[in-house]
Each structure stands twice: as C-alpha cells, then as structure tokens.
Amino acid sequence: EADIYQTPRYLVIGTGKKITLECSQTMGHDKMYWYQQDPGMELHLIHYSYGVNSTEKGDLSSESTVSRIRTEHFPLTLESARPSHTSQYLCASSDPSGEYLTDTQYFGPGTRLTVL
Amino acid sequence: LAKTTQPISMDSYEGQEVNITCSHNNIATNDYITWYQQFPSQGPRFIIQGYKTKVTNEVASLFIPADRKSSTLSLPRVSLSDTAVYYCLVGDDGRGSTLGRLYFGRGTQLTVWP
C-alpha cells in the first residue's frame, strides 16, 4: 500500500489568510501532483513536479504555488485565501518503475479547504 | 490528452455483475487504459490497467476490443462497499520526457443497493 500523507485533512479559514497544505510521500517517487476537485466534479491538475527543484503549472489555472525542495515533500501555498479557493485538494505521486504499464498515481486522503 | 466518455451514474444490487463502458475514440497508439475508484472524501485508487484484449485481477476485469476505442470495466458480484465513483482514463506511459498525465473526467457514480 502506498504511503502518501496530507495535512490538514480539513481546514476552515478566513479570507486573506496565508495557508500551506502539506503533502509527503515515503516511497521515493520523483513525480508528484496536486489536483483540485469540487464535490461531484472532475479532478483538475493544478501543479506537478518531475523531481527536486522542478515544478510546473497544470491544466487548471491556480493562484496557489508549490515547491519541491525535497523528494518526499510537495507543499502547496495560498498567499491570500479567498472563498473561491474552497475545494478539495488532492496530492498524488507516481513512480515510472512500478509494476504497471504506466505510472500508477497514488493519492493522499485530500485536504478539504473552506474559506469563509 | 485523450478524453473519455462514460455514463454519469449507474445503479446495481448486491451480488450482481456491473459493467461500466468507457469511450475513448481518440486514443493514441501509446496510450494505456486505466481505471480508478474513488470513495467520498478520499483520493482515487488504482483498480486495473490494460492495453488491449482482456486483463483480470483480484478486483475487476477490463475488456478492450481490437480497435481500442472503448473499454469495459467489469465488477463481479458487487457489494455495498463498491459504491464509489469510477474513472476511466487514457494516457501514455509517462516515461522519458512525458509526464504521463492523466485526465480524470467526472467518472461514473456507481450506487449499489441492498
């Protein structure tokens, strides 16, 4: 079973606050991803990383930023939270050397963010 | 990224076999077909993957016709705990310079009734 962790699981915060969503994996995976998902809707890729010091924006424009200083850690930061940022944020990692034909993405449990 | 089309929702009863069909008309030669499962308030979880013909594991079977423009996920004898959203994705192998990005559509909400 994959080991990928996200904290906090739930966060309610006021407008204008700076927040950082944590994501860590203990599998040594080089590739990591952040997705945003509203209830009942599709997942949107907002950031990804090929490895340390590599970060790219995904398909959905996001005001968040990410960093990848260590292989196992891929935090997402919102400098000034707004109600439009209310959503579920899912972190994932993958390993191209896995047993399956393509990268299998392992997801964390997600952080449900509510901005008041 | 090749996109997929699958039913928004399906209903079944416990003990029945469920087949969820996905269309991917623009699948590329290097693309593989992968299915994920997502329970409420959790991240998606890999179920099965294939390239062509049939693949079976302890959880499900995946049927892929020769033209690969569709695929069918088969869940044998479903139980209440199989109630979840099922995503069909196509993507390349992600090796080399490509990310191996996957497009998660809205998926199929499967509801299993007692």
List the helices and strands and how they pair.
The complex is a heterodimer of chains A (116) and B (114).
Chain A: E1 4-7, E2 10-13, E3 19-25, E4 31-37, E5 43-49, E6 56-57, E7 65-66, E8 76-78, E9 87-94, E10 105-107, E11 111-115
Parallel strand pairs in A: 2-11
Antiparallel strand pairs in A: 1-3, 3-8, 4-5, 4-9, 5-6, 7-8, 9-10, 9-11
Chain B: E1 9-13, E2 18-23, E3 32-38, E4 45-50, E5 53-56, E6 61-64, E7 70-75, E8 84-91, E9 108-113
Parallel strand pairs in B: 1-9
Antiparallel strand pairs in B: 2-7, 3-4, 3-8, 5-6, 6-7, 8-9
Question: Could you characterize the architecture of this molecule?
Answer:
The complex is a heterodimer of chains A (116) and B (114). Chain A is an all-beta fold. Chain A has one domain (4-115): Immunoglobulin-like. In chain A, 0% of the residues lie in helices and 45% in strands. In chain A, the strands form two sheets. In chain A, strands 2, 4, 5, 6, 9, 10 and 11 form a seven-stranded mixed beta sheet that branches. A four-stranded antiparallel beta sheet of chain A has the order 1-3-8-7, with no helix packed on it. Chain A is globular and about 40 Å long. The termini of chain A are far apart. Chain B is an all-beta fold and 114 residues long. Chain B has one domain: Sandwich (Immunoglobulin-like). Chain B is 0% helix and 46% strand. A five-stranded mixed beta sheet of chain B has the order 1-9-8-3-4, with no helix packed on it. A four-stranded antiparallel beta sheet of chain B has the order 2-7-6-5, with no helix packed on it. Chain B is globular. The termini of chain B are far apart. The chains are: A mainly beta (116), B mainly beta (114). The A-B interface holds A 31, 35, 40-43, 45, 48, 50, 88, 90-92, 94, 96, 100-110, 112 and B 32, 34, 36, 41-46, 49-51, 91-95, 99-102, 104-107, 109.
